[in-house]
From TrEMBL:
Pfam families: SusD-like_3. This is SusD-like N-terminal domain-containing protein. Coiled coil: none annotated. One of its GO terms (cellular component) is cell outer membrane. It comes from Candidatus Ordinivivax streblomastigis. It comes from the Bacteria.
Amino acid sequence: MNKIILFILSIISVLWMSCNDFLDVIPDNRSILDSKSKISKILVTAYPDQSPWLLAEFSSDNTDDNTNKWSTMAAVERPAFLWKDVDDIDNDSPQAVWEACYKAIATANQALDAIEKIGNEDGSLNAQKGEALLARAHSHLILTNMFCKSYSSLTSVTDLGIPYMENPETTVNPQYERGTVAEVYEKINRDIEKGLPLISESGYAVPKYHFNKKAAYALAARFNLYYGNYANVIRYANLVLGTDPSSVLRDWKVLGAETNFEKRANMFINVANPANLLLTDTYSYWPLIHGPHSVGSRYSHNQVISDNETSGSTGPWGAYTNFYLHYFSFTGGVPKYQVMKYGSDYFEYTDPVAGIGYRHMVQVDYTTDETLLCRAEAYALLGDYKNATQDLVTELKAFSRVYSVDSAKIVNFYKNLNYYTPKAPTAKKRLNPDFVVKEGAQENFIQAILHLRRIVTIHEGLRWQDVKRYGIEVYRRKVDGSFISLYDDVLRKDDPRRALQIPKNVISAGLEPNPR
């Protein structure tokens, strides 16, 4: 990950890039942040430039081993798929994600420190303060989602958290404690609640490259879903979706009608699309690895998963052919099945003659579609199946030609569907959460919501969080055409590998590793 960002290096006091000694030199140029415009400029870099999506998708049940007939592209792929510690430090690796998040956090902390020093009695820096707080919460949530167990009211008071950085470092070789997941969630919640009233969209040329109001509320909705505060999920989702959610959802019909994949990718990340709430630029191989290329086909989302569980599966809404956006499959036996949303040709040439540079992915971090499904889940967990049904119907109206589902259809479809086994797969997985999901209607509604979210957000890393939150067990399979064989390994509900191992260089620096 050989990227040098000179602007950041000149103004932030800690870059967690070398973890043998977290802070080799303390720059004495922090006074450069002495104006509103300078603070606004630095906040452009308060968002991680690495994506956790590859790690999340490879860790989840969205990926199979298609045998050694097919190749990998990146060293991170096999260990991520097998839930092993990853030594690779290139793009998409645990170390890359860890460093990018803490670098973004350091930027947010530098901005907050500057605001405090300048003074904000007149509120003129409220927008910058709000953005910094939300950006800090966002990066810490990514770290917690990837490197910790999911939040649990039963175990989070003792589960290992991650260091929550709230101030710029002023000492060489500071010592950090991981704390607990409960402590991290409390601090994320505090930053969100402090930041939300301060967010303003004025002053930004492109608000969707920053935490604008709707993006901030979408973060709050997702976070509170993971936190188990369902009334807050509904409250914040309402502020994102308004009184007519259908008017702000993605137009999947128009998107699916575009047959040029690169044009479709540009449509998907268009800042003018009301469904897109926050977009960030990352360095990632993920669009290439999961995209319409034979490269990276060994570990991938394949036909067996697609036909039975995701983009080619049947639900209470009918067959997958009703969806406006269909999966893409290859000729010549290539096993990869992809739903074309993200382009693979955003390449920054550092040496055009040699043809080298950096591969980028512009990712949509928060969308109205996901927020609507967060609200549907919150309604279902509160036993409000009428509103949960309405939210599912609203999403299906945007996503599918057939959307005439009702509570009875939802309950009966999943009631009559067999539970998944690795050799007889279905979309219905056994749920083992630490919170109560009642048998019958409630479980069937949750099955529907998890199923639809898995389809709508395929390739975007969110399935891994559902696997963790609901204690869904994951089997590793080798798939060769119609022949399925099993690895001698299963990710059980209490498996400590559900928390990815923190980077080796951070462990070497003295931070407590995750248990194995």
